[in-house]
Amino acid sequence: MMKQTMKTFIANPFYDCIFSHMMEDECVAKLFISALLQKEVLSVKIRQHKRGGKHKACIPLLFRIDLLVTVNGMDSQIVVKLRKTWRATKTTHLRQYLAAQYLNEDVLEREENRFGLPVVDVYILCHKLGELTNPVVYVQRHILDYSTNLISDGVSDKFIENLPYDSIIVQSPYLREHAYSRLERILSVFNQEYCMKGNEHVLELEEDLFPPDEQLLLNRLLRVAADPDFCHAMDMEDELLSEIEERDTKIMLLDKKIEEREQMLKINQTFDSAICLLYTNNMSIADIVAQLSIREDEVTDALKRKGLK
Known about the structure:
Layout: E1 7-11, H1 16-24, H2 26-37, E2 41-54, E3 60-71, E4 78-84, H3 92-108, E5 119-125, E6 136-139, E7 143-144, H4 158-161, E8 166-171, H5 182-187, E9 195-196, E10 199-206, H6 215-222, H7 228-280, H8 285-292, H9 296-305
Parallel strand pairs: 4-5, 5-8
Antiparallel strand pairs: 1-10, 2-3, 3-4, 6-7, 6-8, 9-10
């Protein structure tokens, strides 16, 4: 007789309110950061958390948490700067494009390191980054995967090239269904493939996925999955994201129209120059019309714009 798999329902940590709640528990934060750094973490203290990475409408789109981390065997503490994008939506291609822009701006506009300590950037992405297909990427002097294998394909990405510190990038779309390592198990709470059908606030995971010493992460997210205050906060984030998407779509369409208009202007200027060149070489308007297969008024308008008529 096959053993029936029990399911656990947890809140989706791609929502800012849930991610913040998850990281406010020091034991959970130690578990999470330890798995990412592949080192024993002794303590984690939150320095600050906020939204950032503003887009053209000045709405923040990256959730940031700065942590002061003590690692066993290291002489000094390190600063771990967590950056999390918002969850994916129906307009995935749009979100991927825009998220890439915000990430580049976040790197290029990075404030000076005021901590005077080693810094590690961690980016938890709900979209794909360029051509990289690894779920977890370590950017140091070389770009490595979780098993410290050198990655050479897909690394010529503007975002990666501009990273100022050692960095860890998590691409949730590439997280696998079956977790084979401690980090993969812990990151499975970000795997959006586990979202309940019709309810992206909740992920459905196998209860026995996590060993006893990692259950505290599940328990932390389990307790708020049905909490009215957190459910309301997630609803508010859904509404805000919907508004941002609508504005972003309008901005992108407007940018596209402006680009098309500029291209058309360049084409017209080139066309005007060609007409004027033929005219100044003593070709008649009738011959220009025949030569370029255009109307006579188009020729005369071009000559007027150039001051030749």
